[in-house]
C-alpha cells in the first residue's frame, strides 16, 4: 500500500462530504484531470480507505421521530451471548448502529422509532425478553447537535 499523499487526503475529505461528486468537479478542485481522480479513487477503494458511498436519509421525513441510545447489559459473557446479540442487531431494523463497550454496559445501540410507543415496544417486546439481555437503559435524544460521518484526516 502506498502512503497517502496530500492529494489523497484532500480527495478523501471531499468524498466524505459528498461521495457522489463527479470526477470532473473533484478534478477542478484538486487541480488534476478527471482520469487521475478516477484512478486515485479506484486505488483508495482497492486499498480499503473507501468502503462505500452511503446515501444519508432524513429520519423525520420517514416518520422516524424518536432517536435513542440503549445501553445493554448481557446476562453472561460468552461467545454464544455475543453471537446471539449480533443476530438480534442484524434482524432488528430499528437498531441502526451497535457497539461493544467497556464499563457497565456491554453494548450500546442507536435506534430510530416512529414514536415513544414504538420505542417502548422495542424495549419491552424485543430487547427485554431476549435470552441474552439482562438489563437495558434507554436515553432518548432531545436534540442532535452534530451527526457527521466524516472522519478526522491527517493534515
From TrEMBL:
Domain (HTH asnC-type): residue spans on this chain: 4-65
Entry annotated with the keyword DNA-binding: yes
Entries under PROSITE patterns matching the protein: HTH_ASNC_2
Keyword Cell cycle: no
SUPFAM superfamilies, per the entry: Dimeric alpha+beta barrel, Winged helix' DNA-binding domain
This protein's UniProt keywords: DNA-binding, Transcription, Transcription regulation
Matches recorded under Pfam families: AsnC_trans_reg (PF01037), HTH_24 (PF13412)
UniProt name for this protein: AsnC family transcriptional regulator
Source organism: Marivita lacus
Upper taxonomic lineage: Bacteria, Pseudomonadati, Pseudomonadota, Alphaproteobacteria, Rhodobacterales
Amino acid at each position: 500500500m502506498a502512503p497517502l499523499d496530500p492529494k489523497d487526503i484532500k480527495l478523501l475529505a471531499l468524498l466524505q462530504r459528498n461521495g457522489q461528486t463527479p470526477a470532473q468537479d473533484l478534478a477542478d478542485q484538486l487541480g488534476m484531470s478527471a482520469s487521475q481522480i478516477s484512478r486515485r479513487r479506484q486505488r483508495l477503494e482497492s486499498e480499503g480507505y473507501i468502503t462505500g458511498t452511503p446515501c444519508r436519509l432524513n429520519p423525520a421525513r420517514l416518520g422516524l421521530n424518536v432517536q435513542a441510545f440503549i445501553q445493554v447489559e448481557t446476562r453472561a459473557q460468552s461467545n454464544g451471548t455475543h453471537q446471539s446479540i449480533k443476530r438480534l442487531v442484524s434482524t432488528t431494523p430499528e437498531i441502526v448502529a451497535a457497539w461493544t463497550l467497556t464499563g457497565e454496559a456491554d453494548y450500546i445501540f442507536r435506534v430510530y422509532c416512529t414514536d415513544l410507543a414504538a420505542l417502548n415496544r422495542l424495549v419491552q417486546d424485543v430487547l427485554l425478553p431476549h435470552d441474552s439481555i439482562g438489563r437495558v437503559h434507554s436515553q432518548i435524544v432531545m436534540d442532535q447537535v452534530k451527526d457527521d460521518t466524516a472522519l478526522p484526516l491527517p493534515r
